[in-house]
Amino acid sequence: MPAMPLNQQTKYPSRRAYVLKVRSDAKPDALVGRLENIVTGRQREFASSQELLDSIANDLEAAANEPSGPEERSP
């Protein structure tokens, strides 16, 4: 049986892990809280479900523009 290649890429990287804190006064039609990226510590407040989704999208966009490792950084 041939050896299976090991996939180094995970489907769920730590850089995309978040803590979602929903305020005690939030309601299904009035979602309010804070999103925190576990790796970067970046926090974003949101006052609606759309703002929550926008926060995640903005964080993913920011991550795409950051170098992922020392080998990608220019001297």
- Rounded to the nearest angstrom, the radius of gyration is 17 Å
- Percent of sequence in beta strands: 15-25%
Question: What would you call the quaternary organization?
Answer: single chain
**Unreliable spans:** 70-75
Number of DSSP-assigned strands: 3
Kindly report the average pLDDT value: 84
Order of helices and strands: EEEH
Helix residue percentage: 10-25%
Which secondary structure elements does this structure contain, and how are they paired or packed?
Layout: E1 18-22, E2 33-37, E3 43-46, H1 49-64
Antiparallel strand pairs: 1-2, 2-3
Protein traits:
75 residues, 1 helix, elongated, disordered C terminus
Descriptive report:
The chain has 1 helix and 3 strands, in the order βββα. The protein has a domain at 14-65. The termini are far apart. It is of the alpha+beta class and 75 residues long. The protein has one helix at 49-64, and strands at residues 18-22, 33-37, 43-46. A hairpin with a 5-residue loop joins strand 2 (33-37) and strand 3. A 3-stranded antiparallel β-sheet has the order 1-2-3, with helices on one face.
Question: Quick recap of the structure?
Answer:
This protein is of the alpha+beta class. Helices cover 21% and strands 19% of the residues.
